[in-house]
Design brief:
The complex is a heterodimer of chains A (114) and B (110).
Chain A (H helix, E strand, L loop, with lengths): L3 E4 L2 E4 L5 E7 L5 E7 L5 E9 L2 E4 L6 E3 L9 E3 L8 E8 L9 E2 L3 E5 L1
Parallel strand pairs in A: 2-11
Antiparallel strand pairs in A: 1-3, 3-8, 4-5, 4-9, 5-6, 7-8, 9-10, 9-11
Chain B lengths: L3 E2 L5 E4 L4 E7 L6 E7 L6 E6 L3 E5 L2 E6 L4 E6 L8 E8 L5 E3 L3 E6 L1
Parallel strand pairs in B: 2-11
Antiparallel strand pairs in B: 1-3, 3-8, 4-5, 4-9, 6-7, 7-8, 9-10, 9-11
Classes of the chains: A mainly beta (114), B mainly beta (110).
Chain lengths: 114, 110
C-alpha cells in the first residue's frame, strides 16, 4: 500500500528559485493537508483541501500556493524561495466521515534554501 | 486561537517504567483526540485515537481523556528504548482542521 507519497525527498534551492512539492494519495481521501515542521518544533498548517477544486489557507500560508485538481494530488508551490522556508514539509490526508478520522502522513520533503 | 499544549521534555524514564505524557487543549468544542509518535527524521505515525471520556487501551498504550478538564494523556507501560521518540498530541473538532501540540520528547534509558 503506497498511502501518501511525497516527492522529492530532499531538495536544495537557491534564494529566489521556485519549485513544486508533489503529494499523491491512493486512499481516496477527501481531505489533504500541507504542514511544515521546523527543527525541534511542532507541525504548522500551511494549506488544506476538503476536496477537488477546494483549498483554504492554514496558519502559515504566505509564500506558498496550492491547487487540487484531482482527489489524489495536492501539490505545494513555493514561489521566490526564501531562507525562512527551509524546513521539512509533510503532506497528510484523511477520510471524511461522520466521526473525525486521523491523518496519514507522507515521508516528508526536506528542503533547504541557500 | 485554538491551542494544544504539551511539555516539551525531554521526559526520561528507565526501561520497564511507565511513561506519562500529557496534553491540554483550549477549544471546548474539540471532539477527537490523537496521539502520534515521531522518530527523529521520520514522519508522524498514529498510535492512538480517543473520542469519549475515560480510558482506551491498546497493548502497552493507554489514552485517557477528560473533556471537562480539557486534558488528554498517554501512558506507555513497560517502556522500551524503542519508545524513545517525540509524541505529538492532535485535537480536532469535527472540522477539517487538526491542531497539533509542539510534542514531548521521550527518552527511555536502558
Amino acid at each position: 500500500n503506497a498511502g501518501v507519497t511525497q516527492t522529492p525527498k530532499f531538495r536544495i534551492l537557491k534564494i529566489g528559485q521556485s519549485m513544486t512539492l508533489q503529494c499523491t494519495q491512493d486512499m481516496n481521501h477527501n481531505y489533504m493537508y500541507w504542514y511544515r515542521q521546523d527543527p525541534g518544533m511542532g507541525l504548522k498548517l500551511i494549506y488544506y483541501s476538503v476536496g477537488a477544486g477546494i483549498t483554504d489557507k492554514g496558519e502559515v500560508p504566505n509564500g506558498y500556493n496550492v491547487s487540487r485538481s484531482t482527489t489524489e494530488d495536492f501539490p505545494l508551490r513555493l514561489e521566490l524561495a526564501a531562507p525562512s522556508q527551509t524546513s521539512v514539509y509533510f503532506c497528510a490526508s484523511s477520510r471524511r466521515t461522520g466521526d473525525s478520522q486521523p491523518q496519514h502522513f507522507g515521508d516528508g520533503t526536506r528542503l533547504s534554501i541557500l | 486561537q485554538k491551542e494544544v499544549e504539551q511539555n516539551s521534555g525531554p521526559l526520561s524514564v528507565p526501561e520497564g517504567a511507565i511513561a506519562s505524557l500529557n496534553c491540554t487543549y483550549s477549544d471546548r468544542g474539540s471532539q477527537s483526540f490523537f496521539w502520534y509518535r515521531q522518530y527523529s527524521g521520520k514522519s508522524p505515525e498514529l498510535i492512538m485515537s480517543i473520542y469519549s471520556n475515560g480510558d482506551k487501551e491498546d497493548g502497552r498504550f493507554t489514552a485517557q481523556l477528560n473533556k471537562a478538564s480539557q486534558y488528554v494523556s498517554l501512558l506507555i507501560r513497560d517502556s522500551q528504548p524503542s519508545d524513545s521518540a517525540t509524541y505529538l498530541c492532535a485535537v480536532n473538532n469535527y472540522g477539517q482542521n487538526f491542531v497539533f501540540g509542539p510534542g514531548t520528547r521521550l527518552s527511555v534509558l536502558p
